[in-house]
Amino acid sequence: MTDFKIHHRDGEGVSIIELKGYLDAHTAPDLETAFQKLIDEKKYNVVVNCRDLSYISSAGLGVFMAYVEDIRKNMGDIKLTNMSAKVYNVFDLLGFPLLYEIFKDEQEAVLRFGERKK
Amino acid sequence: MEAGKKKISKRIPSRTESLADVREFIDHAARKYGFSEDDIASIILAVDEACTNIIKHAYQYAADKEIEISIFPGTRSFEIRIYDNGNSFDPSQIRPPDLKEHLGHKRRGGLGVYLMKRLMDKVEYNYIPGKRNEVRLIKYRMDSTAQARR
């Protein structure tokens, strides 16, 4: 069994998604469901905290790409934080740092959403 | 050193649930071979991507099919051969991904093949249409130092 968990919490005007475990072709649909739910609820400011994400394959990366456009069309964004070097390396191989803001710390990403409102 | 040992094989059902088992199988063999943590992570991901492609494209999620994975730990290279009997795959159709094209598309593809090529030293496809497909993934032992310099 692949161990993967998603925890969702709402901050001030920002939704935080915490990922834990292994994000692969088996578990990617769970992340799709989570993003779709946020879009349905019109929650477009999303921070994905990857602190406990042990592994990601292209199936997981594809989910970020599939949903970010819908979110950006609605003046929101998906910002990524707290990645391990191993997980960052996979994002980096596919050029994600050019398309996504990646922060060391969740709070920095939350503050960035706040800056945009000013 | 574990070089020169004979092949190790595993058959798995063609289901995404099997990917965790595949990763564990590769992790164990690559670790025993003496690769660095970075190389082990690269090999695991490349094999995961190859198996994911078979599950999705060759077998199109038919859960009653099987994938065979054989590892050949050679003196200078660690080779993984992955076999299936599904639809043949023509890698020449895969272009390097343009991420901007992928944005917003619910249908994804090509990222896995690109990653496999970046993560391994050699990726080869051999197939006999209607019979058997083979993907060969090769990592050279000495490459761990070359990779670190990239």
What's a concise summary of this model?
Chain A is an alpha/beta fold and 118 residues long.
> What is the number of helical segments of chain A per DSSP (H or I, 4+ residues)?
5
User: Which regions of chain B have little confidence, pLDDT < 50, spanning 5+ residues?
Assistant: none
Shape assignment of chain B: globular
Percent range for helical residues of chain B? 25-40%
Greatest interface (CB-CB under 8 A), with counts per chain: A-B, 27 and 28 residues
- Strand order across the largest sheet of chain B: 1-2-3-5-4
Q: Number of folding domains of chain B?
A: 1
Structural class of chain B: alpha+beta
Q: What proportion strand of chain B?
A: 25-35%
CATH architecture of chain A: 2-Layer Sandwich
Q: Low-confidence parts of chain A, pLDDT < 50 over ≥5 residues?
A: none
Percentage of helical residues of chain A? Answer: 40-55%
Number of domains of chain A: 1
What is the CATH top level name of chain B? Alpha Beta
Please write the string of helix (H) and strand (E) elements of chain B: EHHEEHHEEH
Structural class of chain A: alpha/beta
Any idea what the radius of gyration of chain A is?
13 Å
Q: Strand tally of chain A, please? A: 5
Distance N to C terminus of chain B: 26 Å
**Content of β-strand of chain A:** 25-35%
What order do the helices and strands come in, and which of them pair?
The complex is a heterodimer of chains A (118) and B (150).
Chain A: E1 4-10, E2 15-23, H1 28-40, E3 45-56, H2 58-73, E4 77-81, H3 85-93, H4 96-99, E5 102-103, H5 106-117
Parallel strand pairs in A: 2-3, 3-4, 4-5
Antiparallel strand pairs in A: 1-2
Helix pairs in contact in A: 1-2
Chain B: E1 8-13, H1 19-33, H2 37-58, E2 66-73, E3 77-84, H3 99-102, H4 111-119, E4 122-128, E5 132-140, H5 143-149
Antiparallel strand pairs in B: 1-2, 2-3, 3-5, 4-5
Helix pairs in contact in B: 1-2, 2-4
